[in-house]
Design goal:
single chain, mainly beta, six-stranded mixed sheet, five-stranded antiparallel sheet, 13% helix, 34% strand, disordered C terminus, repeat, Aladin, Aladin seven-bladed propeller domain-containing protein, Beta-prop_Aladin, WD40_repeat_dom_sf
Length: 489
């Protein structure tokens, strides 16, 4: 059955073999009831959701698997919000300087466009008619090109923190006390970027480390380097800082000597970072740049991965099997890349853009959500790239031309008056492929699905009592719920 949704870029809407299909779709109506008033959820184990009174909530009562996890408490006193650029200027008294020196300073600090705007101000045109005449006409030309650029890429109307907030996978990024976080893939370490432009590293066996420098502002994303102990990539408005910390050091405030800044022209702010599973390569993306960069961090060398259409790249995710990469633009285009040759299959969504995506542990399925539909899409990608066919398949099989709707997250009102669902901000799939956590844009609740990979995609169902996962090597999985008293999320 064909429905609204997706089409590969090579397909047409009227071709039913190249549209989005529904298969075993789950909805929020199937979930169990929420905890009673005064209780909060502390954990979910084996399909059973456990809740307790807020005053004495403790997950250790139900399981010891989190006893070694670090304790995180973000308070108002802990955060010292960084001054923005406008606030910083107010600290200094104005100094009298000639027009040319002032324009040079403005150009250096804020760019050529703002310098031209300053020179074209009426007072400056009167005092310096030649400078004002040139600046006025240059502005007119620049405005024409800017108008065309904004028409093609509306997302570029936002700049700096506003742009990061628009594409971030954090609800209310601009005011959230926690802006992004990353669990280490191999050990119990948590990197947590906060509102004051610092990154705190929590571990059960060492003091909390705080990494911060004056140029590391507007943190959009963080990612641990696999197969290392303390190497962290931090994407921000100046580029990406790669912090290499000494695991034997007891210093809680590492110096900038531990950091390497990787940056490229027109590649800021960095809104996406992802490491290869082997940890040898780092890929960065920016919502303002159509080019992604693959970095050799030690050599500080890069290789550009460029596609001119679709807009800047805001979502990047390397598959656990290392052979594929998912990237999504600020337009309707997203791609699945073969990382051996860096060729891609190109897909389009009907409207909006891809907001978030995550891979199955086997790397055969990618789930993603858009900014305009409360749906989780499932795309089976194992056979998109085949040794027996060209890496870029112009005519893939009918099965591989279809993205399945795995879950309908339409906003619902529960019996006790809570609203759940709507557009998705972020998703996380556990490393065993058994649980999927979903964070919504307008709902403060988190939905946890039990999940499995099928021959055509992913099967999602509500976590509920009576579900007993079985299989070789299966360990009980616990999804922690985090409570932020400052109202972020």
């Amino acid at each position: 059955m064909s429905v609204r949704g997706l089409k590969p870029s090579w397909g047409q809407y009227q071709n039913p073999g190249r549209t989005c299909l529904i298969e075993n779709m789950c909805s929020l109506d199937n979930f169990p009831r929420l905890p009673p008033e005064g209780e909060i959820v502390v954990c979910e184990m084996n399909g059973q959701v456990h809740s307790m009174n807020y005053d004495r909530a403790d997950a250790i009562i139900f399981t010891t698997s989190v006893s070694s996890n670090p304790k995180v408490n973000i308070t108002k006193e802990l955060l010292h919000t960084s001054l923005n650029r406008q606030d910083t200027r107010r600290v200094f008294l104005p100094v009298s300087e000639n027009i040319f020196k002032r324009l040079v300073n403005i150009c250096y600090e804020n760019g050529l466009y703002e310098a031209l705007e300053t020179a074209a101000e009426p007072d400056n045109v009167t005092a310096f008619p030649v400078v004002g005449f040139i600046a006025t006409h240059l502005l007119r030309v620049a405005n024409v090109f800017t108008s065309i650029r904004y028409t093609l890429h509306p997302h570029l109307r936002e700049l700096g923190d506003n742009l990061i907030a628009a594409v971030s996978e954090t609800r209310n990024w601009a005011h959230s006390p926690v802006r992004c976080l990353s669990w280490h893939p191999h050990c119990t370490k948590l990197a947590l970027a906060t509102l004051d432009d610092s990154v705190r590293i929590y571990s059960c066996d060492t003091p909390t480390r705080i990494i911060k420098c004056k140029t590391q502002r507007g943190i959009a994303c963080v990612a641990w380097r696999p197969l290392t102990s303390l190497v962290l990539a931090v994407g921000c408005d100046k580029g990406v800082f790669v912090w290499s910390l000494d695991p034997t050091s007891m210093a809680t405030r590492p110096t900038t000597n531990c950091a390497t800044l990787l940056k490229r022209p027109h590649h800021t702010p960095v809104t996406g970072v992802t490491w290869s599973p082997q940890g040898d390569l780092l890929l960065t993306s920016s919502a303002t740049d159509t080019t992604m960069y693959v970095w050799d961090v030690e050599l500080e060398e890069f290789s550009p991965v460029r596609r001119v259409d679709g807009g800047g790249v805001n979502v990047v995710s390397w598959s656990p099997c290392s052979t594929k990469l998912f990237s999504a633009t600020t337009g309707t285009t997203f791609r699945v890349w073969d990382t051996s040759q860096w060729t891609a299959d190109r897909w389009n969504v009907i409207s909006g853009r891809v907001q978030t995506a995550c891979w199955s542990p086997c790397g055969s399925v990618v789930l993603f959500c858009t900014t305009t539909e409360p749906l989780i899409y499932s795309l089976f990608v194992t056979k998109l790239f085949s040794l027996s066919t060209p890496l870029y398949q112009e005519q893939p099989s009918e099965l591989l031309q279809s993205a399945l709707i795995a879950a309908d997250l339409t906003l619902i009102l529960t019996e006790d008056g809570h609203t759940v669902g709507g557009l998705v901000v972020s998703m996380a799939w556990d490393n065993k492929g058994c649980r999927l956590a979903v964070l919504f844009r307008d709902s403060p609740l988190v939905a946890v699905f039990r999940s499995s990979v099928t021959p055509t995609g992913a099967n999602l169902a509500p976590c509920a009592p009576g579900y007993e996962p079985r299989g070789p090597g299966f360990d009980s999985l616990l999804v922690p719920w985090v409570f932020f008293p400052l109202g972020g999320g």
